[in-house]
Amino acid sequence: MTQSYEVFLGCAIPNRFNNYESSMRVVAESLGVKLIDFEGASCCGTIVLKSIDEPSWVTTSGRNIALAEKRGHDIVTPCNGCFGSLKDVDHVLHENEPLRKAMNKILSTLDLEYTGKTNIRHFVEVLYEMKDKISTKIERPLDGLRVAFHPGCHLLRPSKVAGFDDPELPRKVDELIELTGAKSVPWSLKLRCCGSPLLISNEDVATSIIREKMADAKKFDANCVVTNCPACHTQFDVQILGLTDDSGQSLELPALFVTQVLGAAMGLDPERLGFEMNRVSLDPISEILGI
Questions:
Q1: What is the residue extent of each domain of the chain?
Q2: Would you say the C-alpha torsion 144, 142, 222, 188 has a positive or negative sign?
Q3: Three-state secondary structure along 90-144?
Q4: How far is residue 235's CA from residue 280's CA, in Å, rounded to a whole number?
Q5: What span, in angstroms and rounded, lies between the C-alpha atoms of 175 and 195?
Q6: What CATH class has 3-123?
Q7: What is the fold of 138-289?
Q8: How many alpha carbons lie under 13 Å from residue 100 in its C-beta half-sphere?
């Protein structure tokens, strides 16, 4: 039976990370997951809006959820920020009846209603449930790839909202990564924030955080970083460019999306996996990836 979801891409992925979208789509296609383009989507509302105007944040995300609900679909997103915002609003609306009624009064002018029937899922959750099928599709084991996997904050926190304890989902993604023959290294700063949210307010602090993260990944002999979040990927594949440690050694490591790792091991078309759009050079691991 084919699984189908409305895919909520958010703002950053279509505008900055076409390699994430393309690799997600080709992996989904190979696994028989139908991704339906989300018509009428707006920004998820994001935590930035939450900090400024919480009712607008709730209504913005609530409208997106209600759109999918009206069409009878669950939502899947590859973006941690969108997952966190949509999932958080869904939780708030389940718990707060007065707020739900107030929002639905606004949504009624758009012929929409939120009732809480639509599930919001991150794409890595869907992938984990298909791990047995993925294991049968591994054509090119990625022996020698040592991955520093970074799950990102909004995939995990708060755990009451996300629906699992903090360590659970990272371990599941570790399993997915290791299905490919790669090794997910147990680095000590794995669950620490990448610093991306601070880029707007204090780039120096954000840079200091990513320096520490990358130095730690290198200390544990990782030869690449893998993410499932576009905001985190900005740190690992854009902000890191040209950064060095105190001795002048480069802190750059090839940065991949989890869908690119899975796709490479599944023998999928490198062009559709978008490797040419990665900023940090993939030369150190190109032979392993088969590109």
A1: 3-123, 138-289
A2: negative
A3: HHHHHHCHHHHHHHHHHHHHHCCCCCCCCCEEEHHHHHHHCHHHHHHCCCCCCCC
A4: 11
A5: 25
A6: mainly alpha
A7: Rossmann fold (3.40.50)
A8: 15
C-alpha closest to that of 35 among 216, 257, 259, 195: 259
**pTM of the predicted structure, to 2 decimals:** 0.94
Q: Which residue type occupies 279?
A: R
Asked whether 266 and 27 are in contact (CB, 8 A), the reply is yes
Which of the 8 DSSP states describes residue 80?
A: H
Q: What is the pLDDT along the chain (291 residues), one digit of tens a residue?
A: 578 999 999 999 999 999 999 999 999 999 999 999 999 999 998 877 887 888 899 999 999 999 999 999 999 999 999 999 999 999 999 999 999 999 999 999 999 999 999 999 999 999 999 999 999 999 999 999 999 999 998 887 666 665 555 556 678 899 999 999 999 999 999 999 999 988 888 999 999 999 999 999 999 999 999 999 999 999 999 999 999 998 999 999 999 999 999 999 999 999 999 999 999 999 999 999 999
Dmax over CA atoms of the chain, in Å, equals: 61
What does the chain come to in residues? Answer: 291
Q: Where would I find the H helices in the chain?
A: 12-16, 18-31, 46-52, 54-70, 80-95, 97-107, 123-129, 131-136, 159-162, 168-179, 203-219, 230-234, 258-265, 270-273, 286-289
Angstrom distance (rounded) from CA 263 to CA 255: 15
Q: Which two tokens stand for residue 230?
A: 């576009």
d(CA 124, CA 150): 13
